[in-house]
Structure prediction request, 365 residues.
Amino acid sequence: MHRGAVAEIDRSALLHNFRTLQAKIGHKPVIAVVKADAYGHGSLEIARTLVRNGADFLAVAFVEEAKVLRSAGIGGKVIVLFDQTDISAFFDLNLTPVIHDKRAAAAFSSEARKRNRTLPVHIKVDTGMGRLGFREDSAVSSAVEIMNLDGLVLEGLLSHFSEADLADRSFAVHQLNLFKDIGARIIKKTTGRVLCHMANSAAVFCLPDALLDAVRPGIALYGYATCGDNFGLRPVMRVKARVLAVRNVPAGMPVSYGRTFVTKRESRIAVVSLGYADGYNRLFSNNAEMLINGCRVPVVGRVCMDLTMLDITDAGSVSEGDEVVILGTQHDQAITADELSRRSNTIPYDVLTALGSRSRREYLP
Prediction:
């Protein structure tokens, strides 16, 4: 038996979500975020599918992620959101850096002069996220300095929302207005077209003024909108495992470490070949359900490194080798990343990257 889980990745759901986004934004370019191995869905297959179907840009976090795409023959424009260290790779692999400090800009310019090349760049403005980017008091002057460096061509300006997914979007609106103001002042200093982009998945659906010149969706591509409605998106990942053993146990029987669960009746316990080493959070101990025979069955006892136990007493006939669904649908029942994130006090991104990155993936047409 293969250890852990299998993640089924549904390409048709991915394309449905991509088309849903396109319908929402019109003809604006889509910068599809495939960082963190496409949020656990597998960056190669996700990127291939999106580029083949019209994604204008791909976005990754670090150069190493871009190298994986290029090594697999994936073309198109690739933006590197955070990494400014491997300067030569941007030229060798035709990558676009997001510049958030002037020293890196000078290094890119120097390399461009050596190679007699030009490099498109995007400049990041910090409007309140507090991570990376030029702050309001220096953004315009810094952008002008960068634009005047030899070999660099300003292709884009971007910022990042810190809370566009909240019901109270007053700070998001403040960030957007600040970005628009800074962007307008920078663009006055340019002669070419500059793409201004700030809208993440939540902003695409819930903050229409943020669509600007391009959008930068991530989680929505994978089926989640994060701002109170799913907007017809379809989850792309379904995670399943197998029953390793079925045990008939008496009342009063403790299950798993610490005896945090003790049977109150004669029970049937299924042992599933999945644990926290496979991305199934230990916080799901006595605090989650899985699907078997189309029934929701509770996780009982503590989640172990390699195994998790389920109370299947009321689930009908269950045998060794039967399918168990951890995330996704079975018959008319569904467990979503939203549900699992609520149960473990986290966010869907965390659930998807944890389960997806540690599962064996199967891609559906």
Q: What stands out?
A: The chain has two domains: 11-222, 237-364. The CA atoms of residues 192 and 292 lie 58 Å apart.
